[in-house]
Write a structure and sequence with these properties.
The complex is a heterodimer. Chain A is mainly α. Chain A has twelve helices and two strands, in the order H-H-H-E-E-H-H-H-H-H-H-H-H-H. The chains are: A mainly alpha, B mainly alpha. Chains A and B meet through helix 1, helix 3, helix 4, helix 5 and helix 9 of A and helix 1, helix 2 and helix 3 of B.
Amino acid sequence: MEEILKTAFPLIVAVVGCSIAFVIVMGVVAYTVLAERKVLGWIQGRIGPNRVGPWGVLQPFADLLKFIFKEDLVPDKSTKFIYFLAPVLAVTCAMMPMVVYPFGPAITTIDWSFLPFGLGEGIRQLPLVVARIDVAVLYVLGVTSVGVYGIALAGWSSNNKYSLMGGLRSSAQMISYELAMGASVIGVVMLAGTLELNGIIEAQSKSPFRWYIIPQFIGFLVFLIAAFAETNRVPFDLPEAETELVAGFHTEYSALKFALFFMGEYINMFTVSVMGTVLFLGGWYMPGLSHLFTVGSIPYAVVSFLIFMVKVCGFLFLYIWIRGTLPRFRFDQLMNFGWKFLLPLALVNVLLTIIVVYFLNS
Amino acid sequence: MNDFNIIDYAPIGIMFIVAFGFAASQILVTQLVGPRKRTATKLMPYECGKDPVGSARDRFSIKFYTVAVIFLLFDIEVLFMIPFAVAFKYLLDQEKLSGVAFGTIAFIEILVFISTLVVGYIYVWKKGTFDWGLQARAEAREEAKQALKERKQQAIRDFQRAA
């Protein structure tokens, strides 16, 4: 029994960690949807949802109930297996990066000796991240880009012309902007010298002037634009351009299958917001905080976590703000912009960073 | 430089199970709970209320294909730069410590690498892979010119007949 528990202990910790991350992210996602409708309402001089619960707080749950009790339609001509697989793939790929989100600094002050069987002996710290893998940036880029398959397969398997065009456009758009996104990250990786997210935050945690938004401003701009395009948000929401393509790749999807795509999109928004925060805005680091609290204590971790969430929510607000402000691109403009402007700009940024790093360090 | 430990990667597998299980359960719930009233019209591909014409499994623009191929090339090149980016500062430090020109060699090599990438990029640009709709617009302009010409000639012929 003791032996089994000892071998399974890391797995149990991982399961608990995954569940907590899952709950936090789903909560934030649910309220992002509400916040989006509220903020869009205010931008357009409306009130936004305010019927379900005080101030519309229960709206996400009402939406979920509505999705559950809608008819789940499977069109006659669709390729059934892929039609069902596509939303699952989309949402799974969106959720996978959750394990590497650095929610806060490690807590070192808890004494773990109360755990039975001496399980707590080797534990020095409680990191607020589920998996500490040292290729986290690559992992996030890789896993999120598999999400393209969800959309492309959804478009193809529906056997609907609008879906097919939406899926094609979406995949072309996402792969085009992924290049720029990958290239914009290289500068940050070069300055930090690591791919681990907590390592990148630590490299920025001396003063706010070392946040990579300042030395990597071009990279930040490219990352931001590419992030909007990667998540299919306004002004790059071509795949769902309802004036031309009805609903794009999810035209034929209803009920919870549609909700899965919807969730996938918002989780992806959360992911790129986390990546933007970590890579360019110093993650959970806040200047002066280490003077107020002991580093490694629980209050320090909690306040850092809140700061992290505030930065991420700032990004999410930017998303909504832009949606309320900008019109949509035309598809050829989008592709030209991505390939002829953004990609060279990202490469120039990489080149500049290489040259500056070389001459500063040699 | 950390030691590799497979247990660090275990959460990824667990997260996959959690996410996949969540998504699959959603599909199951919606199949079980939702109403089922199927009609032939409802199960048609949606085409704004009209009966669908032809199939969606048709040919589409080659541009999407070329973009995908070029994406593969460039993405691999970008990925090649990431290990370099991780190691660059370390190499420069090593150069300072040991006097062997690790950093300088890496610097020159990456410049050569990027310049080959740029050559490829310029080639692809000149080939017109990034010109979405330029050719189509040129053709349309040509067509419009032709149509205008014909209309003019038609008008002249009409005028002559009337005279």
